[in-house]
Amino acid sequence: MITRTEASFHHWRRSGGWLGVVVLVGMIAVALVGPLALPDPASQPDIVAGAQPPSLAHPFGTDELSRDVLSRVVSGARISLAIAALAVTLSLVLGATFGLVAGYWGGWVDAVLMRLVDGALAIPRLFLLLLLVTVWDHLTIVPFVLVIGATGWFGTSRLVRAEVLRIKSEPFIQAAQALGAKPARIVRRHLLPNTAGPLLVAATLGVGNVILLEAGLSFLGVGGVRPPTPSWGRMIFEGKSVLATAPWASIFPGVAIVVTVLAVNLIGEALRDHLDPKNA
Amino acid sequence: MTSLLDVRRLTVNFFSEAGTVTPVDEVSFQLAKGETLALVGESGCGKSLTALSILQLLPRAASIGPGSTIELDGEDLVPMDEAALRAVRGGRIAMIFQDPMTSLDPVYTAGSQITEAIRAHRDVGKRQARERALQLLEEVGIPDPLSRFDQYPHELSGGMRQRVMIAIALSCEPQVLIADEPTTALDVTVQAQILEILDRLRRSHDMAVLLITHDLGIVAGRADRVAVMYAGRIVETAPTDRLFQHPAHPYTQALLASVPRLTGPLQRLSPIHGTVPNPDAWPAGCRFHPRCPYAFDRCQQQPPVRTVSDGHETACWLESPQ
Fold first, then answer.
1. Interface predicted TM-score of the whole assembly (ipTM), two decimals
2. Minimum Cα–Cα distance from A175: chain B residue
3. C-alpha angle A54/A56/A61, rounded to 5°?
4. Chain A hits for B153, Cβ within 8 Å
5. In this predicted model, what pLDDT tens digit does every residue of B62-76 receive, in sequence order?
6. Which of A72, A74, A201, B95 is the most exposed place for a label (fewest CB within 10 A)?
7. Which CATH architecture has domain B3-92+174-315?
């Protein structure tokens, strides 16, 4: 007999979830220890030479300010991954809380919360962010993360609410009530775990989204990351002016974004399958 | 006979914009310690609502009407607050549901759900709860409880899941077990096993069982008494044998005539024509009269409850409808 664990690991291999984990863990490890071994991303050893193509000394080449692109991509990983992880965590917590409360309690609570969400969803996120960024003049990285996180949960809350409405009518919820479970316990122990699948998928898409959003905001010059601190989005933006002559300055951070988003997506998919007991 | 659960004049109202409907109308019955009472009736006659109102797990639009009392050991449950009710639910009164496929949470193992139920009402450690859970699995006739303990609901058959549900229901030694159509979703052979288990556990735990079913066939030999429900009211209550031998109410007779029999002369099954009317369209007087072959003028008025013999009551104008 195949146990649940074996079956799931089989599934992991087949779905490529392991590949995602390997890539993401590798990325995080490099982000953590890489900067120790690489040259200072801000140093400009040969400033007159300008952008240099990839070479042994600079595997990813150098940008127009003669900074090592590899070193900057690795340092940027710290920034981009941290922003994505923190902002998405915040979005998930907010989205799950609002969705659970609205879905479980229903009635006017649901009506009020969901109309607020509808209103928020009617405003394009980028405009909302630009507005907030304008209000706060000097946005440092922590408020930047808070702002991204606080504007990213609307869709998630709807998703969670829809799931809760579906699960709430399942007989096992009534069975739990018949056993004397408190509402808080039903929400925490039964509703939340049963919405974990969609939440993880939302998180996956969220991570990719936030990385791209951060790039977009950096492009507009309003990101929380200020030069010379490298973030992937910022690097693509800075490489834009020399795209024709030194494409490596933009391509490598771009590849980093693609690989990361892909890895997280693979993990999300595999986790969803893993958490759905029907697929175990 | 002192009753453990004493339901009197239980009324359930549904409020909506279209008006108020009363799908359960002044239902009274008593359940003694160690006794099985079967509540029998067609779909839509208010059996499940009656069961849910005992635990006060009614849908939001429904509420228990004034004048209703549900006494457990002399203590009325109707005015209790939520916290007190939660102690009753699963603690003193447990319930098992019709569909074992969906009554267990798919994300937890069978064992952890039993353990959780134990720990919800008892102050015991994890190890103790686990041992008790294994013991319960054994008691409900699950072979190899150790390996079943760590399985998820989807890995268990319908019969196994219903056993797990029973184990959960029994985890806190309830005084009353409400079984709402516990075997309707199961194969016939499994049905018999589940009913057998319920009966055995009732005896060994000295529980009172309220068995809700639409199937008179499973009542014989298992229930001590039967209450027949039609359109929100109880029309006849009798000890099981007497109900089968001398059904007093035309509806009971019709129900019995629609159950296939293995003994006696070969005869056609006679279905009851028509369907149970909706609660918003219940006829005046005896609610069965539009479908009743013996109906006469007086049936336009609500018949009083009449004692046929000791413990056998019916609400019908006919003295002896046969």
1. 0.82
2. B103
3. 25
4. 277
5. 899 898 999 999 889
6. A201
7. 3-Layer(aba) Sandwich (3.40)
